[in-house]
Amino acid sequence: MSWPIDAICARQMADFRGEEQSAIAKQALDGPVLISAQGIAGDQQADLVHHGGPDMAVHHYPLDHHDYWRGELGEHPLLALPGAFGSNIAMRGLVEGDVALGARFRLGSVLLEACQPRQPCWKIEHRFGEKAMVKRILATGHCGWFYRVIEEGEAQAGDSLEQVSEGMVDWPMSRIFEAIWGTSTRPDEGTLREIASLDPLADKLKAKVRGKID
């Protein structure tokens, strides 16, 4: 299957809160864009402890979820922007339950591999000027996910994201997110141990899951 993408987004760091900086306000890019193992050319992360690196090279937040947020926030102006949630890829038709850990996708000449769901942070609430957004993400699982780059190359808006392998179909991003951060069920130690053993999962997240067990 394949899905056309609306935009590829990136941003340099900018003032965000007081002396803090952030690049969460991603903006659509024109023309072909180089995508390497470290991410999209021209994109930055202010907090390199919690963001960036090969296992967070490309962030995907479904535009499908913008409809949910309109129901919660009304016609917030940020919801008209493709990179409102810090996403690098803007498209519809693919959500967390559809994307398995280790699934691979071709975008232009780039090969991507889904390697972890995104843990929400306070910057989303500050950007939107709305409280309790993180709580709603934890409850709904509208988290988005990250890809690592298996083959570097170029892509641009209008290209299609084509799935080329299914990955670990028993472990969609929605299930992993719910097991680690979700609020509808209590964390299960056996499930967490299994998650921590999944080869395609990002190493930092494996360590975080093991920390929850310990």
Plain-language structure description:
The chain is of the alpha+beta class and 214 residues long. The protein has a single domain (2-183), classed as Beta Barrel (M1 Pyruvate Kinase, Domain 3), CATH 2.40.33.20. It is 24% helix and 29% strand. The chain contains six helices and 16 strands. It has helices at residues 64-73, 122-128, 133-140, 173-180, 189-196, 203-213; strands at residues 2-4, 7-10, 14-17, 20-22, 27-28, 33-36, 39-40, 58-60, 89-90, 100-101, 104-107, 110-117, 145-151, 153-155, 160-165, 168-172. It has a six-stranded antiparallel sheet. Strands 5-2-9 form a three-stranded antiparallel sheet, with no helix packed on it. A three-stranded antiparallel sheet has the order 7-6-14, with no helix packed on it. The longest helix is centred in the last third of the chain and has 11 residues, at 203-213. The model has no long low-confidence stretch (mean pLDDT 92).
CATH architecture tag: Beta Barrel
Topology as a string of helices (H) and strands (E): EEEEEEEEHEEEEHHEEEEHHH
Mean pLDDT: 92
- CATH class category: Mainly Beta
Shape: globular
> Number of helical segments?
6
Query: Which structural class fits the helix and strand makeup?
Result: alpha+beta
Strand order of the largest sheet: 1-15-11-12-13-8
- DSSP strand content: 25-35%
In total, the number of strands is 16
CATH superfamily: PK beta-barrel domain-like
> Can you tell me the residue ranges where pLDDT is under 50 for at least 5 consecutive residues?
none
**Largest sheet report:** 6 strands, antiparallel
At the third CATH level, what is the topology name?
A: M1 Pyruvate Kinase, Domain 3
